[in-house]
Structures are given as C-alpha cells and as structure tokens.
Amino acid sequence: MLNLKINNTMKPVKKIIITLVCIIGIFSIFSLMTGFVWVIPITKYTEKRCEFKQGDIVNPLASLDLSKGAWKAYLVVSRTDYYHLNSSAKNASVLKTANIEVLKAMQKKWTFKYTGGDMATAESNIYLFHDEKLVFLSGIILDEPNVGLQSKEYGWLESTNKDLMLNNLKDFKRVYWPIVFL
Q1: First and final CA of the chain: distance in angstroms?
Q2: Whose CA is closest to 59, among 10, 109, 22?
Q3: 119 with 148: CB under 8 angstroms?
Q4: Who contacts 157 (Cβ-Cβ below 8 Å, separation ≥6)?
Q5: Bridge partner list, 123
Q6: What is the pLDDT of residues 75-85, one digit of tens each?
Q7: Which of 109, 125, 150, 175 could link 94 by a cystine bridge, Cβ 3.0 to 4.6 Å?
C-alpha cells in the first residue's frame, strides 16, 4: 500500500506553485468542457477616424496587404452570437483563422453600407493581426437582421451580404487554450 505523507513544512513558494498549477488545471478542464476562453486584451490599437457619406458602400479590409507577412484573425464571440455560427464553433468563445484564403475571401467580399449611426449592442469582436501587430479591431454583430461591424472609427457598417459574412466566419476554428492574450 502506498503511504502518502504530506509535509507540513512545505515551503510557501512551493505551495503557491502547486496552488497555481491546480487552478490553471481546473480552469483548463472547465475551458475544454464549456468552450469558454478568458481573453486578456494586451495589444494597443490606434483607431483612425473614417469619413464616409451615409449610404456609401465600404470595405474596411481593402487596404490590408495580405500577400506579405503572417496574418491571423480572432473572433471573440458573445453567447448571444453562438447561434449564428456552425456547429464546430458552438460554445466556443474564441475562434481563430490563419488561413490566408479565408482572410482574402473576407477582404474581397466583405462590403458594408455606411449607415451614419451606431449599434450599441456589439458584444462580439473581430481582431486581425499582421506579424503579431493588431491592424484591425471592430465590434461585430452576427444576430439577424443586424449583421455588420461597429467601431469608433466608422460607427455602424451594415453587411451588404450577411450570408457570405457568416459563411466566412464558419471557417474559423475553435481556440482550445484557456487564456488568450490579444
């Protein structure tokens, strides 16, 4: 029989490390079971105010040069937006793609109508990184009939092709890490 003896004179640093490992382990198991990922925003993003006229058709991704460097996009999804994503993304709070073809399709086909207003209910966000630098950040709404982007840069942009936009996002894959630094 294995006799386990707990050493009460264990050093405080060792106790702290064991406690942290246990907490991270529990959080990791919880994350895998529920799809919840803790997102910690650490990247600075400088917004540039855009001037459009109401009714303009705009593409906020058009100026990005996807042919150079490493690109990736993260979609941080609120619980209310899960319903509109594919089954592999259900219950995943963070989705990611580094697939350049998906990003090029988004760049080419994501067009929006500038409404001149704001949408106060954007709970999800989309992040685009180029060589680990945040180059695009926007709130994103995936709830029919309001599918589009919301940011301080341009306000509310309503998608001109909601189904296409949602289909592109279905190509994103679930992030399994319990903590993501964006």
Answers
A1: 49
A2: 109
A3: yes
A4: 58, 60, 112, 113, 114, 115, 148, 149, 150
A5: none
A6: 988 776 666 56
A7: 175
Query: Residue 13's Cα: distance from chain center in Å?
Result: 35
User: Which sign does the torsion angle of CA 17, 35, 142, 145 carry?
Assistant: negative
Looking at residue 103, its amino acid is: L
Structure tokens at 91: 């219950």
pTM: 0.77
Residue showing tokens 């995943």: 92
Could you give the angle at which helices 162-169 and 100-109 cross, rounded to 10 degrees? 170
Residue stretches of the chain with pLDDT short of 70: 1-10, 30-36, 38, 47, 49, 80-91
SS (H, E, C) the chain: CCCCCCCCCCCHHHHHHHHHHHHHHHHHHHHHHHCCCEEECCCCCCCCCCCCCCCCEECCCCCCCCCCCCEEEEEECCHHHHHHCCHHHCCCCEEEECCHHHHHHHHHHCCEEECCCCCCCCCEEEEEEECCEEEEEEEEEEECCEEEEEECCCEEEEECCHHHHHHHHCCCEECCCCEEEC
69 in Cβ contact with 135 (< 8 Å): no
